[in-house]
Amino acid sequence: MKVYFSEDHRRHFPQAELFGGQFVTPFERPSRIEYVLDRLRERRFLDIESPGPADMAPIRALCAPDYLDFLETAWSEWKKEGFSGEVMAASFPARRMQMARPPRNIDGKAGYYALSTETAITAGTWAAALSSAASAQAAAAHVAGGARAAFALCRPPGHHATADMYGGFCFLNNAALAAEALCRAGAGRVAILDIDFHHGNGTQDIFYRRGDVFFASLHGAPEEAFPYFLGYRDETGHGAGEGTNANYPMPPGTGYERWSGALEAAIARIRAFGAEALVVSLGVDAYRDDPISFFRLDSPDFTDAGRRIGGLGLPTVFCMEGGYAVEAIGINTVNVLEGFEDA
Ligand code: FKS
Ligand code: ZN
Q: Measured over all CA atoms, what is the biggest interatomic distance in the chain, rounded to whole angstroms?
């Protein structure tokens, strides 16, 4: 399977994440990619290519123009304001406040476009986000061109990003860009399967009213887990998209037996939907030792999950999302890909 990955991910490396009332080194850090690359090479995934520049037209079609302007200029505006740290949102349009008027002040704007505070923007964040999107686009183009599968080793991740919000370490929704590219290449129906521990709120939001893209997500129940405010079972889509959204929230301590049951249910829905192509939001933070998650999957479980996904027999684009137990993320990611190829 071909792998796409850009060195430009390194340009995004914030020094700080607000976690539990303290600043810590962000869990989402450049070394994550090294762990995955090392295992890919070791296990003979040697066809690793760096993508060309991002195709801006689909990004502009997906995202709000003012949001893209914000991402591109946030760092320089923050510096112009005289702030010495990284861009971090602190004030949000909460209940009964105005949503329709983005402030001019950069501190206000950060809160307007953010869905949470832990995700900092630095000098190279925009370039890194574009390079991550470019990997997803290249992988989608490869699959649209007839390949069985491709892996976009995206960093920063994407599934929390909406058309106009960043957060949860995400800026541009890579999986959504891949799905949209598959649609435009002629797939009448595309499914997105999100197996990251966290709910893919951004992806759900982007496709919620569309009937041609099915979204299924397995994740920590919103009562207990980030992003907290979306991901319930009764979110089933709206309008033309009614019936094309499936959430599988699960409680703390969930192990592979329950998780694989949800995976089978999601796969059955994707099959019934009649998907012609598949995008997998591949997070491996459902792993038992993940530092910020609460499922209990073992490494071999990821191989089995990959095999079940491969059983769908669909052209498939994998997009890297989360996973933080650094040593294991390489093993678990490649396990999914190998299982898939085995199927
Ligand atoms: C707030 C805790 C916020 C943020 C967790 C983000 C998870 C990101 C991810 C992605 F795939 F996007 F990387 N924690 N007090 O793993 O879903
Ligand atoms: Zn996650």
A: 55
